[in-house]
Amino acid sequence: MTTTTQASKPVVAHCLRCGRALRNATADGYGPKCRVMVRKAARAEVVAQYKPHQVAKAEELIEQGGLVPLRGCRVFYAVSSDGATAYKAHRAACTCPAGIKALYPCKHRIAAHILSLAA
Ligand SMILES: [Zn+2]
Ligand SMILES: [Zn+2]
Fold it and tell me: How far is the CA of 80 from the centre of ligand 2 (A)?
């Protein structure tokens, strides 16, 4: 067991939603609690539009950090599951094989949709 003294870290950012001081910079600018709230609200809107298993896959992708914001939280880089290819995803379009066929909204599009709502 290691004992570490919890030295107070400097404030590096403020939560976009409640303005609370954040001691760790976050990718989306929200504190942990607010992120949950914002994602929940975004999810409710998205769930109404897509199939539940697709939304689950999209959320898994987000949890894994599989989407990287490219332009103002609207366009994202999505890395393929084997890490070999990167796609460009927007809520309305994606350059992955499924997205180009556009038979159904791929998980990248749904994930981009969730993140663009949460931004
Ligand atoms: Zn907050
Ligand atoms: Zn896609």
Answer: 9
